[in-house]
Predict the structure of M48 family metalloprotease.
Amino acid sequence: MLRTRLTLASTTAVLSLALAGCATGPIPDASTPITQSEAQAGAEAHPELLAEFGGAMTGSQALYVEQVGKNIAVQSGLGNARDSFTVSLLNSSVNNAFAIPGGYIYTTRQLVALMNNEAELAGVLGHEVGHVAARHSQRRQAAAQRNTLLGAAGAILSGILLGDSGLGQQIGQTLMQGSQLLTLKFSRSQELEADGLGIRYLNQAGYDPHAMATVLQSLASQNALDARLQGRDNATIPEWASTHPDPASRVAGANATAQGLSGVTNRDTFLTRIDGLLYGDDPKQGVIEGREFIHPELRLAFTAPQGFYMVNGTRAVTVNGQSGKAQLTLGQYNGNLNTYVQGVFSGLSQQQQVTPSSIQRTTVNGLPAAYGTARVASGGSQVDVTVFAYEFASDRAYHFLAITPAGQASTFNEMFSSMRRISAQQAGNIIPRVIDVITVRVGDTVASLASRMAYSDNQVERFRVLNGLGANDGVVAGQKVKIVVRGS
């Protein structure tokens, strides 16, 4: 979340990037320079994307990512490629990377932290350069050129709870309006074209092209771990929840494409350069600790229901579970909570009016609050839509928008009642996590190193995924590895 306001969530905890595969079709001609119109289109969208993904990071780590990105862009053959590309490291805890027309390439710090060498970084960025070089955005239908994808919350809410009605679509869009999914969706054939280009760029630059497969494997492992940590049975990334196809299905293809090729990985250089990189939630945007969401700067906290998991994004916190979905966000507030709640309902649908049976006033942990629930018929069934709002100041209010099957609105009552202010001392106790690159010593084991991870659960599993280690892989003295520790 932004420093001054809640951010709208990435609507899935496992939003990921699948980059590589076996390019079976012809590689497109990617030698045409970026045009002035393409550059202008990218320049107009660039500030909005930075804002949606927590802003661009600065400093030595961002400069390193930019350097690798520009070096791989040169391999595209585009005229003035180094000068024509803008490469940004985003302050986001989501595993993602994407590109927009005009040579604008993005990767999140979380995805960089999951990588284990420079070749993997070059592969991710090279794939995105391939999208730009092959004009994939321009080749899509104009109506979808800047498509905001339905994420997990929006798609599940509109597809499962609300069916395919216009109301479901409107509510789903409300839940992810302006979200981090403001990225471009490409067809599978376009992904394969970008894969082929990315692997070609790696080979031409002297990197090991197999790095494309290893970063995909890390993403697949992270997806599976996230699913277990969040209590989800299925680790697969649905098509609507990802800007790229699922990585697990493309590892073999990437290895097949790179067969017989070799090159450098620059592992130690990469690890040294990302040492100290922020990992997970940025306290300035709020943090998730178990079932607790705590925002030190906005001085608020709440507790998600048992069995639900949360996703923190750039403008909201999403709460996901089998029996309902909810988001906490904010809106314009004029000092009247009743008007605020009614305004949220009024904005849900253009097809039909959504009106609560009543708006009730209450107090939650000293906070003035108001709430209402509307029963909505949709797709042959009914759902309950609840808005629960809190006043934190005369000009500042936040609200939950929750959707449950009819008769189950009480699912979120405990969460609604948990909203509270936090003290300055509680806010000060929130310390960020960072990547700490260490050298394995004689006697160190996976278990002993994992015990130093700044988590109370699944330390070994987190350590293995972070370092690209399989279930039977060990560590050797002198090897550099990553652990996650509390920063300062």
About this structure: Residues 185 and 243 are 6 Å apart (CA to CA). The first strand starts at residue 86 and ends at 90. The two ends are 20 Å apart (CA to CA).
